[in-house]
């Protein structure tokens, strides 16, 4: 977007009976009577909904009630995970908090940065001339941030992968699964995004797969509670490793990745829960390294090995038929699909012990598996 | 008939008694209208709306604001 496009206000917005009649200064401050640019913008608040959502909450009190616990605002699991890996010294925590604020925390969102403008972390810019969009447009907001992994997976932009079936066949937008309730928070202080109680689960919609009329009922029953849906139904996905943050001489904050690659790895679920009880889940490598924050403080992550760097993942490239579910033995007896010790860098092995699949736990080859044609016939 | 004659006579009499009132009302409305127009002219315009709804004004303004910005190719991306 050109700089002028980012701040252009459509005069139609002024006819919006709910928001158009509120004076600009009530939310944004500044001096609406000043003709000089600098005077007009003195003390201007670019995003009145950040860091507090008070102006929105005057009317939208329910939506804004748990704003500060919303993960898009707080990024709480990310900060917690870093601190849990860190040395206990307060000085180390202070430095890590500084690093987090400079680098990681720039990727937050707010009421305004979904419903009025694009998030600041992707350059900002009004979505539609300051019109208030009840449903945030997915490409301008959701995948503007969640693009390199989720967006590319969902829209089929990853090389060799097809779009997610929910997108390709049902044209589902992000909000179909990720509802306002999930986005706006429920007041609970979560340690992981997958713990969020209002988060989507496949069987919220696919309720029928375990019923008598469910497609592939026998297969679904056999694997229920043992493998996550993604283990059978997702395609390879992006992994990143070795993120390092720092500050250039010019003052710009930067990060760099050691590597990123496409892969598909099934591992052990490190933290089974009532929401996610499965033994096997898909794992994605998170871009963390023992020296990620060494620009700010040396040897900060002394408890690095207390959490795996391969994390349970929910790839957004779901297909009914995938390479691994084409036949039983594409998965059973196929160690390549599983995260084994030799797949993990020596320095990360200790951290990843809870998710590495020992050879004895890889499911054995199936004798006389039904052919695809037979399975299809049964399904029909 | 007599009723209407009496009514007409009493109306004429009332008009003669209060005829000063009509020019007062007219002057009041004239002043009020003039005052409103003048007040509207005197009130400062919302400059936010003036600039932010005009593409031409914003282009000129943002060009001026960014005229000294370094070009993208001269910006360091850091060691990474």
Note the main attributes of this structure.
heterodimer, A: 380 residues, 3-stranded antiparallel sheet, two-stranded antiparallel ribbon, 5 strands, 9% strand, globular, B: 80 residues, rod-shaped
Element order of chain B: H for helix, E for strand:
HHHH
Q: What kind of sheet is the major sheet of chain B?
A: none
Distance between the termini of chain B: 106 Å
Question: What is the number of helices of chain A?
Answer: 18
> Strand count, sense and closure of the main sheet of chain A?
3 strands, antiparallel
Q: Classify the beta-strand content of chain B into a percent band.
A: under 5%
Helix content of chain B: over 70%
N→C terminal distance of chain A: 50 Å
Principal-axes shape call of chain A:
globular
**String of helices and strands of chain A:** HHHHHHHHHHHHHHHHHEEEEEH
H/I helix tally of chain B: 4
Oligomer: heterodimer
Mean pLDDT across every amino acid position of chain A: 93
Strand tally of chain B: 0
Number of strands of chain A: 5
Shape of chain B: rod-shaped
How much strand content do the residues of chain A show? 5-15%
Radius of gyration of chain A: 24 Å
Low-confidence stretches of chain B: none
Q: Which segments of chain A are poorly predicted (pLDDT under 50) over 5 or more consecutive residues?
A: none
